Every structure is written in structure tokens, then in C-alpha cells.
Amino acid sequence: MKDSNANSDQRRSALPIFHEDTSEATLDKMMDNATTAASFLKAIGHEGRMMTLCYLSSGEKSVRELESLLSARQAAVSQQLARLRLEGLIVPRREGKTIYYRLADDRARQVMELVYRLFCSEENK
């Protein structure tokens, strides 16, 4: 009966099931994906960057707005923005002397929603 439950759990998972006969090409692709995912997670694995992504999940913000929201100096905010930009998670837009940032795509928003559900929502407290 225990094996039946294990198989049932595997079917419900979004993760693929791998066997000894998994092709070399598939394993190489997995390693490439793991490298990309690790880089992504390292980029968000800092409180300041995570909060920045959280704020940007609700829409575009200027550097000045982010400084205020993060209660941080411009130099510290700029350093975190540079790392997020380097990782391709955010994109800048200049309007006169003001620089605005927004999320580059939906990956960060999806992760921030998951983090919120797991750690911040009232149902998980």
C-alpha cells in the first residue's frame, strides 16, 4: 500500500520523474536549468533585493520611491538594483532625471507570490 501512495504523490507533483535510463541530453538540460535557477535564487536571496522585488510586483517605482519604501540610502538601493538588473529581473526606464524600475517578466512576481503565501499570508502564521 505504501508504494501506491508514493506513486500517487509523484503523479501530483509538477516535478518530472527520472530513471536510470534518463538521457544524457536531458541530464545536461537539467544541469543548465539548475544553474539558471540557482543564479535566480541567489539574486533574490537577500532581504533588500527580495523587498525590492516585492515592491516592484505591484508596479513600476522610481529609485526615490524605493529608497523611501526600503528606508535605505540611495547607494545601498542602487547596489541592489544593479544586481537585480544584472540578473535580468528588472528593467530601468529613464524619464528626465528620474529612473524607474519594473519587473522584467513574470518570474519574479510568481516567486514573490509564492514566498508571500508561504511566509507572509495570515493563513500561514
UniProtKB/TrEMBL annotation:
It comes from the Bacteria. This is HTH arsR-type domain-containing protein. NCBIfam families: HTH_metalloreg. Residues 27-123 form the HTH arsR-type domain. It holds the Pfam family HTH_5. GO terms for molecular function: DNA binding; DNA-binding transcription factor activity. Keywords: DNA-binding, Transcription, Transcription regulation.
